[in-house]
């Protein structure tokens, strides 16, 4: 019998939402948002990939197709026939694999500094830099510091890096990297009618509004982008109340 991935739940409202974290994260990433989320209008499931967080001890292939299967198994377990998706960073690619696996079940998708379906298109040099972070927490902290605009306390970046090391198994962390760094399934989402909202941080040097316009907005005709003030790549940590408000405002639109 297949066991479910670990997840945390919040709220009991009619609009069901499953949230997927980024490469450095876990389901705990969303904790700072919960004081601003509406539990009467929404039901949230904060999902952990195999090898991460509450699923840290769960083995697997560590692919996005596997993630899609696991997310759908969770939705079935919860009795959620239709639901929306939130994906942060790497979770942007992962949620699109869920949508492609079961397009009629997805109400909306919300991306937070979300990697598009073409992946990050890393060259060998940049890929090597990220690969070096797999076994080096200091390099993880350096990436976090850069991706938040090199403007926040180094101590905070180090804290996030140490947390990521605790919350993910090294083999899982390593295995997911090529899927979001060099994977590309853009041709499969071109023209997709799913409503999508992309939230980008004004200080994020990588996932910018311009990049989002060239990728997500090109492929999804019902997509829009919103820039979050005073945020970099980690809006759920940097501006949690503003992000929670923006997410639920959009999810509530007809």
Automatic annotation (TrEMBL):
<keyword id="KW-0378">Hydrolase</keyword>
<dbReference type="InterPro" id="IPR029058">
    <property type="entry name" value="AB_hydrolase_fold"/>
</dbReference>
<dbReference type="GO" id="GO:0016787">
    <property type="term" value="F:hydrolase activity"/>
</dbReference>
<dbReference type="InterPro" id="IPR050471">
    <property type="entry name" value="AB_hydrolase"/>
</dbReference>
<dbReference type="Pfam" id="PF12697">
    <property type="entry name" value="Abhydrolase_6"/>
</dbReference>
<protein>
    <submittedName>
        <fullName>Alpha/beta hydrolase fold</fullName>
    </submittedName>
</protein>
<dbReference type="InterPro" id="IPR000073">
    <property type="entry name" value="AB_hydrolase_1"/>
</dbReference>
<feature type="domain" description="AB hydrolase-1">
    <location>
        <begin position="17"/>
        <end position="245"/>
    </location>
</feature>
